[in-house]
Write a structure and sequence with these properties.
The chain has a seven-stranded parallel beta sheet, sandwiched between helices. It has a five-stranded parallel beta sheet with strand order 2-1-3-4-5, with helices on one face. The two termini are 35 Å apart. It contains eleven helices and twelve strands. Helix content is 33%, strand content 15%. The longest helix is centred in the C-terminal third of the chain and has 19 residues. By secondary structure, the chain is α/β, with parallel strands linked by helices. Helix 2 runs parallel beside helix 3. Bound molecules: NADPH dihydro-nicotinamide-adenine-dinucleotide phosphate (NDP) and (2R)-2,3-dihydroxypropanoic acid. The site of NADPH dihydro-nicotinamide-adenine-dinucleotide phosphate (NDP) has 31 residues, from helix 7.
Length: 329
């Protein structure tokens, strides 16, 4: 390098991202961007190729960043910035071992995700997709006393598994519907729970006493498969189960069994395993299961802000300076 010339660092983006983030990266003028220029996920081989020699990696939740990817990147890599708040796709121990920093997107997607979760809960409990379908297929013959009846929130008990940022925002939105008791479970009691009159209870109590169960915890070894046969068998037969965290928190075979046998009333899922859920998956044959394609944070403005924060985190890591949202792990 000639004296006075700034070293340009190499970054790899695993996808097209909203323009807000791209503008920040190009305006900074400190990195040379290469990108998987597609709206579809980068194939593994292209990821392994693209990341070679990179100083920064901007990825999404669909990219598994493990030892193989880190080895392919090599010793230059100093920051991984994921356009997500969830970080279960990142091999934290391997990343830590190599001294690489991580940026993520907490807070900026909390409202959008909570809103979608409430929408999913209402759609599931009040059977909206079934109703829409009946209007289209001629199944609507008349107003009938018990046709398409569901369950309402007024006077109900809601259980939130994982009262974190999003769990709190869901609770705040549900309370005005007339919820009577708000239970929550997790590793530790949360001081902020007082704002929603939340009662910290053992998971078993939450499961057996709730009319609506909303899962909003992070995916960890402890929460993987948490919602299984034993979990569903303790739920009320009239209870509705909602998951907007990660698919792997739920044992889907056990959920199918609980839904098809009438053990529980209904389920709404924004997240599944795998994603996408194959179109021939048994869960999709059930009328009492509403499945959405992981759209919790999908508002234009939220995705724009997420991409901007992801870009700022990447730049902070590249320049050994503060990142607006650094994951401490
Ligand atoms: P937070 O870290 O604020 O909340 C996660 C919560 O999970 C914490 O309160 C934590 O409680 C709790 N938790 C951890 N272990 C357990 C456990 N064993 N049992 C019950 N709760 C547990 O994260 P956010 O609220 O911002 O996000 C939560 C998750 O939502 C993300 O990790 C992501 O997977 C998912 N998500 C999904 C979206 C979608 O599009 N559907 C959008 C955004 C996020 P404690 O502190 O006690 O450990
Ligand atoms: C996340 O950020 O973890 C969500 O799943 C997508 O916004």
């Amino acid at each position: 390098l000639k004296t006075g010339m700034k070293a340009v660092m190499k970054v790899f983006l695993t996808r097209r991202i909203p323009q807000e983030g791209m503008k920040i990266l190009s305006a900074a003028g400190v990195c040379e961007v290469s990108q998987w220029d597609s709206d579809e996920p980068v194939p593994r081989t292209e990821l392994l190729k693209g990341v070679q020699g990179a100083h920064g990696l901007l990825c999404l939740l669909s990219d598994k960043i493990d030892a193989e990817v880190l080895d392919a990147a090599g010793p230059n890599l100093k920051v991984i910035s994921t356009m997500s708040v969830g970080f279960d796709h990142l091999a934290l121990d391997e990343i830590k071992k190599r001294g690489i920093r991580i940026g993520y997107t907490p807070d900026v997607l909390t409202d959008a995700t909570a809103e979608l979760t409430v929408a999913l809960l209402l759609a599931t409990a009040r059977r909206l997709p079934e109703g829409v379908e009946e209007v289209k297929n001629g199944g609507w013959s008349s107003w009938k006393p018990l046709w398409l009846c569901g369950y309402g929130l007024m006077g109900s008990t809601v259980g939130v598994v994982g009262l974190g940022r999003i769990g709190m925002a869901i609770a705040q939105r549900l309370l005005p519907f007339g919820v009577n008791r708000l239970l929550y479970s997790g590793r530790t009691a949360k001081p902020r729970a007082a704002e929603v009159k939340g009662e910290f209870v053992p998971l078993d109590t939450l499961v057996s006493e709730s009319d609506f169960i909303v899962v909003s915890c992070s995916l960890t070894p402890e929460t993987q498969g948490l919602c299984d046969k034993a979990f569903f068998s303790k739920m009320k037969k009239t209870a509705v189960f909602i998951n907007s965290s990660r698919g792997a928190v739920v044992n889907q075979e056990d959920l199918y069994e609980a839904l098809s046998s009438g053990q529980i009333a209904a389920a709404g899922l924004d997240v599944t395993t795998p994603e996408p859920l194959p179109t021939n998956h048994p869960l999709l044959t059930l009328k009492n299961c509403v499945v959405l394609p992981h759209i919790g944070s999908a508002t234009y403005s939220t995705r724009g802000v997420m991409s901007a924060l992801t870009a700022q985190n990447l730049l902070g890591g590249l320049q050994d300076s503060d990142m607006p949202s650094e994951l401490r792990f």
